[in-house]
Amino acid sequence: MIAELGKGKYLLLTTFRKDGTPVPTPVWVTPGENDDVIYAWSGRDTGKVKRIRRSGEVEVGPCDVRGNPKGPSVKAHARLLDDDASDAVRARITKKYGVMGWMTVFGSKLRRGRTGSVGIAITSAP
C-alpha cells in the first residue's frame, strides 16, 4: 500500500497532537528506492514536522490538492531525515513534479536556506 501512495500526486499526511487530535495535511509525495518507503518534504518549522519529531505515528492516504481524501488511510511511521538525505528528497520532488517542483523547491531554498526544509521518510507501521 505504501508504494502505491508514492505514485500519487498528493498524500494526505495525518499527524497527531499530544491530545490525539488528528491534523491532516496534503503534501507532495515521491516513491522511494524500494517499495518499503515513500518520501515527503516540508518546512522544518511546521507543525507537522514538530509532531513527527515528537512521535512518528502518522496515517497516510491518497488525496487531492485541497486535502480531500480519495481513498482509505493506513497507519504508518514517519521519520525526519538529515540534511544530505533531505537534499535527495528535494531532488526527487523536483524530478517528479517538473517545473512546479523546481520552482517550489528553489523558492523554499531562497526563503529558508538549504536546511530550512526537511525530508520525511514514511514506512508502513510496524
From TrEMBL:
Annotated InterPro entries? F420H2_bilvrd_red/Heme_oxyg, PPOX_F420-dep_Rv2061_put, Split_barrel_FMN-bd
Q: Which GO terms describe its molecular function?
A: coenzyme F420 binding; oxidoreductase activity, acting on the CH-CH group of donors
* UniProt keyword Oxidoreductase, yes or no: yes
Q: According to its record, what are the GO cellular component terms?
A: cytosol
Does the keyword field hold Ribosomal protein? Answer: no
Q: Which domain of life is it from?
A: Bacteria
- Please list every transmembrane segment annotated in the UniProt record, as residue ranges: none
Q: Which residues form a coiled coil?
A: none
Q: Which keywords describe this protein according to UniProt?
A: Oxidoreductase
The entry's protein name is: Uncharacterized protein
